[in-house]
Amino acid sequence: MTSVAAGFGIAHSIVLRLWRQFQTTGTALRRFSSGRPRGTTPADDRYIVLQARRNRRQTAGEIARHTTQATGRPISRFTVARRLHGGDLFARRPVRCVHLTPTH
């Protein structure tokens, strides 16, 4: 069990608990956990970061729309901002500024 734990990079006690659960119930499904389920999967999170890296001028709202079209599940721009922050990127909100001309 120690080699299995080391192979997956998890604690020995987790492997032991899962093995005991499998022996008693015949399955090792995830246990019920409290809290709100995440709106995106790890694959969705990778897609969001990929979209942001492909087009750095894209806003968080635009990334949210692209992700919703790709996955079929609606997510908000705030969710996109959190996922980008988790990927060491930050929410996009490009500054729109007036370009100066010689008359200024």
UniProtKB/TrEMBL annotation:
Intracellular or extracellular location(s): Nucleus
GO molecular function: DNA binding
InterPro entries in the cross-refs: Homeodomain-like_sf, Transposase_Tc1-like
Pfam families assigned: HTH_Tnp_Tc3_2 (PF01498)
BP GO annotations: DNA integration; DNA transposition
GO cellular component, as recorded: nucleus
Ranges where the Transposase Tc1-like domain occurs: 45-104
Name of the protein described by the UniProt record: Transposable element Tcb1 transposase
Source organism of the structure: Trichonephila clavipes (Golden silk orbweaver)
Gene: X975_08129
